[in-house]
Design brief:
The complex is a heterodimer of chains A (252) and B (333). Chain A is of the alpha/beta class and 252 residues long. In chain A, 34% of the residues lie in helices and 27% in strands. In chain A, the strands form 2 sheets. Chain A has a 6-stranded mixed beta sheet, with helices on both faces. A 4-stranded antiparallel beta sheet of chain A has the order 2-1-4-5, with helices on one face. The radius of gyration of chain A is 18 Å and the shape is globular. Chain B has a two-stranded antiparallel ribbon with strand order 1-2. The chains are: A alpha/beta (252), B mainly alpha (333). The interface between A and B is medium-sized, with 25 and 21 residues. The complex binds adenosine-5'-triphosphate (ATP) and magnesium ion. Chain A: GO terms for molecular function: ATP binding. Chain A: Keywords: ATP-binding, Nucleotide-binding, Phosphate transport, Transport.
Chain lengths: 252, 333
């Protein structure tokens, strides 16, 4: 299988804080990779470096190479805006645009490409909402405000908004942590579906979730990559004692 | 660590309050609290009472004019103290036109300035510009007026107005002779005076836009400008509208600077180059030399209209601004 995303000796600093230490790993195409680890170990920091979200933080410094399809996204002359269209992101707390309707939320990113004919927009909205299994729940009220939806529905809407831009990679930072078990299940099923088309990298605190949805798992501890590999292997026969302790909840 | 810090704080508080009374600390604290509450409640209500009393008094004083002219007071443009006929339309017109046009010019300028401070140059430059803008709001309006009449009006008369007349004179807005002091001068002065207010409130509204909203847009591949367009401005929309309306309230009530530059002629002219008059200006100019009871009453009625309008405008603005900061707080919780 192709490696869609590849990290080579990635270090991330915030001022004097060394948040991610010398991480090298690969993310195979059309697979789900889970990043796990205790709070503050640098999971979000690592994830956000893959679509250059750190560009917004003046104190952040990313070194090393992050290759998407063999091109280093931190190379000079690479447009971060173009990178973010290829590498989409779903956040922990659902963040639909509150001033927009459900319909407009879905095409908010797509519309940035330029004018969008009505029929085309309708099509995109329908297909994206169907893919996130939200269509049947909202098809009669597409024009109503996105904030009317439940948290789980809002999160699926945000995923629809992300895939509407047609990214190749989707980053998810604890996408289900603010949701109830049923909504969480729906999101997990959705991730399963999405991996047919996209490469997915998901940060999660939920071990069962990582075991259920991911093909590969990476365990981070205090900014270091302790271990990564096939999820089955990590969860049954981890090589590192630290990994085993964390997964079995015997962490200390 | 944290907890011990907090305990310290309460202890200092109590120590600071202690010397006033010999009673045990807790009882004294309760007593002090409830007295304080009654006192603040009393003050809060007395402010409302004063407001109501003022409205009542003004309405009472206006009564002769209201009885005499009825609705004609606001529809007639005939203001003649000698003949005893009073129609306030020119003042209403002058107030509305000068403040609305000033607002139309000031609002985009202020939004731009606030965006510059919060989004474009949020670092050191922004933190220098922001207090400077606030400083502008503290300048007494007579200074603006003085500058307006000594510097701006002559400049308008010698440069801007002749230019407008020459190139746009065919539009009724720019007809006539260049007087300097004019509706245009008032509009500019008001614009300069409301920009700081609108900017600083818009800035607060923009700062209340959650980071998650900006990130949502950026992660979709939005440029900085697109982020402003799809995430920041829509989120702050009603607050910005509130800021603008607050500016409108300020502009409608502004007296000194406008009186100095508007020319004080009760015209109703489409041309922005001709002198005009506003409600606060006529009150300020004529209250000291009223010729009759009816004249005084007519001025009082203008004051009443002015007060009711500003109260309504301000209440609307506050509601809009609250709706944004309230939502921001709800979102953060
Ligand atoms: N914008 C920032 N500025 C300064 N330091 C930061 C910033 N973002 C993260 N850090 C620091 O980087 C380290 C890693 O944080 P990160 O958010 O990546 O942790 P995490 O693994 O995602 O934790 P959690 O599971 O709680 O979300 C922390 O020490 C944090 O304080
Ligand atoms: Mg995190």
């Amino acid at each position: 299988m192709n490696n869609k995303v590849q990290l080579e000796q990635v270090n991330i600093h915030f001022g004097k804080t060394h948040a991610v230490r010398d991480i090298s790993m690969t993310f195979p195409e059309h697979s789900v990779t889970a990043i796990i680890g205790p709070s503050g170990c640098g999971k979000s920091t690592l994830l956000r470096s893959i679509n250059r979200m750190h560009d917004l933080v003046p104190s952040a410094r990313v070194t090393g190479k992050i290759l998407v399809d063999d091109g280093d996204i931190y190379d000079r002359g690479v447009d971060p805006v173009a990178i973010r269209r290829r590498v989409g992101m779903v956040f922990q707390k659902p963040n639909p645009f509150p001033a927009m309707s459900i319909y407009d939320n879905v095409i908010a990113g797509y519309k940035l490409n330029g004018r969008l004919p009505r029929e085309e927009a309708d099509e995109i909205v329908e297909s994206c909402l169907k893919r996130v299994a939200l269509w049947d729940e909202v098809k009669d009220r597409l024009k109503s405000n996105a904030m009317m939806l439940s948290g789980g529905q809002q999160q699926r809407l945000c995923i629809a908004r992300t895939i509407a831009v047609k990214p190749e990679v989707i980053l998810m930072d604890e996408p289900a942590s603010a949701l109830d078990p049923i909504s969480t299940l729906k999101i997990e099923e959705l991730i399963e579906e999405l991996k047919e088309r996209y490469t997915i990298i998901i940060v999660t605190h939920n071990m069962q979730q990582a075991a259920r949805v991911s093909d590969y798992t990476a365990f981070l501890y205090m900014g270091d990559l302790v271990e990564c590999g096939e999820t089955k292997k990590i969860f049954t026969t981890p090589e590192q004692k630290q990994t085993e302790d964390y997964i079995t909840g015997r962490f200390g | 660590m944290r907890t011990s810090c907090c305990t310290n704080e309460t202890e200092t508080d109590r120590a600071a309050a202690a010397p006033k009374s010999p009673q045990p600390a807790i009882a004294k604290k309760l007593g002090g609290d409830s007295i304080f509450r009654y006192l603040t409640t009393f003050f809060a209500f007395s402010i409302l009472a004063i407001l109501a009393l003022m409205l009542y008094e003004m309405a009472g004083e206006s009564l002769p004019a209201i009885r005499e002219f009825g609705w004609k007071f606001v529809s007639s443009k005939d203001w003649d103290a000698v003949q005893g006929s009073f129609g306030a339309l020119p003042y209403l017109y002058g107030s509305v036109v000068s403040s609305v046009l000033a607002l139309l010019l000031a609002t985009p300028l202020s939004i731009g300035a606030a965006l510059f401070i919060t989004e474009i140059a949020p670092g050191r430059l922004g933190s220098v510009v922001a207090p400077l803008v606030e400083l502008l709001a503290a300048i007494p309006s007579v200074i603006y007026g003085l500058w307006g009449v000594l510097v701006m009006a002559p400049w308008l008369q010698s440069t801007v107005q002749p230019f407008l007349i020459e190139h746009f004179g065919f539009i009724p807005l720019f007809e006539g002779a260049p007087y300097g002091v004019s509706m245009l001068a008032a509009i500019f002065i008001l614009m300069i005076m409301v920009v700081p207010i609108i900017t600083s409130i818009t800035r607060e509204v923009l700062l209340a836009v959650p980071q998650s909203q900006k990130e949502a847009a950026i992660a979709l591949g939005a440029t900085r400008w697109e982020t402003i367009k799809i995430a920041i401005l829509p989120y702050g929309k009603s607050g910005i509208l509130g800021a603008a309306i607050l500016g409108l309230g300020r502009a409608i009530g502004e007296t000194m600077a406008v009186t100095m530059v508007i020319g004080n002629a009760p015209n109703i002219s489409l041309s922005l180059l001709s002198p005009a008059y506003t409600m606060p200006s006529v009150i300020a100019n004529e209250f000291a030399e009223t010729t009759s009871k009816l004249h005084a009453s007519a001025l009082m009625e203008i004051g009443l209209i002015l007060m009711v309008v500003t109260l309504i405008v301000n209440a609307m603005a506050r509601l809009l601004i609250w709706s944004v900061s309230g939502r921001a707080k709800g979102g953060a919780a």
